[in-house]
Amino acid sequence: MLTAVAIAVDGLGFAAWLFLSSVGLTLIYGVMRILNIAHGGFYALGAYTAAWAVGLYTQTGSTIALTYLIIPLAALVAGVVSGLLVERGILRFMYGRDEVLMVLVTYAIFLILEDVTKLIWGTDSYVSYQPAYWLGTIDVFGLPYTVYKFLIIAVAIAVGAALYVTLNHTRVGKLLLVVIEDREVSKALGINVTLFFTVTFVIGATLGALGGALTAPEISVVPGIGAEIIVMAFAVIVIGGMGSIGGAMLGALIVGFSRAAFVHLYPPAELFSIYLVMAAVLAVKPYGLFALAESRKI
Amino acid sequence: MTKSFDKTEWGLMVALPVLICLIFVLPAWVVNYVQVSLGTGLVALGVTIQMRAGLVSFGQGLFFCVGGYSAGLAGKFLGISDVFLLLVLGLVSGILISFVLGFLLRRYREIFFAMLSLAVSMILFGLLSSTEELGSTDGFNLPQATYFGWAPEGDTGKTMLYAVTCVVTVIWAIALNRILRSPLGYINEAIRENELRVEYLGTSARQAVHVTYVIAAAVSATGGVLWAMALGHVDPEMTNWTTSGQFVFVSILAGTGNIVAPLIGTFILEIVRVYAVEVSPNTWQMILGTLMLLTIVFLPKGLWSLMNTAKKKTGTVPAAEAVAGE
Predict the structure, then answer these.
(1) A25-38 exposure pattern, b = at least 16 Cβ within 10 A, e = fewer
(2) Mutate to test the interface with B, among A112, A121, A295 (most CBs of B within 10 A)
(3) Residue A279 clears pLDDT 70, i.e. is over it
């Protein structure tokens, strides 16, 4: 029973974290057809900025509540600045190129971002446990859990809901769906596709940074976290079907719960359980659960 | 055509004795880098021949690691230290694993192939990192190499291992050059151009991709064995996707035009790395990334295409080349 509760709560926590870290990746792919490996770089930038800002703020000894504003703010700054620089500075010259080539381009950007974080923050680890610590713990059927974990779950649900409402029930969202459906026709209809691309990329980058920023209080931020997250985020979005936000949610839940199950039942397999699940899903549905049918080029 | 040696092959055969003689001329540390980069160069070759078919493998480190670890495991648990036996073992394990995985991967192209090969290599990374019997993330050491019972020590041992590395690399390079000019090589180029038409012409594209995948795995596993023997150590970092990324980097930088390009590219990269890490350790990846962007934008066929532009002026017709990702 205890194990079941632990798997349920941990699974939900993992899923929330995975969804936040991967939704930006699927959004950018869905709109722009770019599998953005630099997403890992945005994640790391967000984590570093948040850990550094929270550290600075804590030293001033001011009121605690504001740190919960600092985290999203740090993500926003990191995401918007780096996202804009990457999109305006590099990617916009590459639109229309082959998808695989774009993977290589974003991989090169990822390498550059890795060193940018090292140049700004050095190679030491940053620890900013305070926001997670101050909220204390809560007992779930006798098992203590940090309240912060539930805060992340709430944020993940809020982000998912916000994206869903924006896409399906606002004018901008519906225009974006048109852009996804057919880039050329929407251009002909007078939609500013370039602007949509820039905004989407910046939002995607900010979401990646937010994933990193929210995780920062729970981990020690070290070089290499970006390389780890990109593989996991890819596994999540490919399970659900790349480009589908609902798919990312489902993928995060599947991966989250199975990883939690492995952690509690068979710990040695934890590190690769994600890819096992992915391989199992793809063996049945080669392009993920919610993948759209695509026409073949003759 | 297939019976005679072409220019590249003659070049390789002439280069072999020169390469081996380097050990008596160059300082030991340079030779060491040559040896190490021949090992990783073979893996880059594996990436390159897949790139000719339009497939970008972001997980070639998997077979690099399979080769290294099968040599390591055979040494650790079976007490085998014979280089030739270890090479065969690495080759066989690489072929077996890639043959099975090929049934999954041959269904995918483009970004899916890239990212799935990456994910598969990360399974092994996770597995090895959490296996304490094999030293987890620290890995373990390999035995000193022997040759049919002969166990040379010190400098003789080093020279011997270096010579074997050179010979094996040249054999593989010639073999792969042959494969590129064989029907399979031409089918691969056709797959890159238009897979559906290949199928209409009555050839199974999936089968060709599968075979190419296995060949690439075999050459990468060989590289893994040679690299591991040269360093005397293996660790899971060999199959981390960041390692695989560097093999892709070499293939992009060198281009897919010639079989020798990735080998030379690897060596240059290795030397640049030595200096870059010394001068400013935190900008090494930034240099890599910038170089890669510049190559993609300005030299989409890699540095080797510069050689062909020079040749064109003298009237020789250059061979067809793959542009990365097309």
Answers:
(1) bbbbbbbbbbbbbb
(2) A112
(3) yes
